[in-house]
Design a protein that fits this description.
By secondary structure, this protein is mainly alpha-helical. 66% of the residues lie in helices and 4% in strands. Helix 2 crosses helix 6 (110-123).
Length: 134
Amino acid sequence: MSGVKILALMSVLALPTVAEAKPPLREVKEIDNELYYIAIANEISEYCPSISGRRLKAIGVMWDLRSKANKLGYSDKEIRAYVESDAEKDRMRAKGEAYLAQHGVSYDKPNSFCTLGRSEIERNSAIGVYLRAN
């Protein structure tokens, strides 16, 4: 291979690669799903007096999620925009309300939150780990 070809090849290899665009945080399932589980657990604990939320656990997980997002290349500003977005809050609420309805929970029947909460705790589900029976 001639010196010119080697030099040309080396210069191409030395060019910085174009970074792939990051997906919106809502599409990063390991982050979005965990926030969803925390939100459902919070709703259960708000409406069921015999179940409380494991808030310190949730806060610790949220700090870990922030760290994961940072490691994936998201800035604190991008994370804050996702968490504080009205559209994302509405999306999460709709998704959560669908889950609750699917499991027989009704805001008119506060005890239905307790039934679901006890079930989640008993199964040690992704939601149940954020709940504690009083």
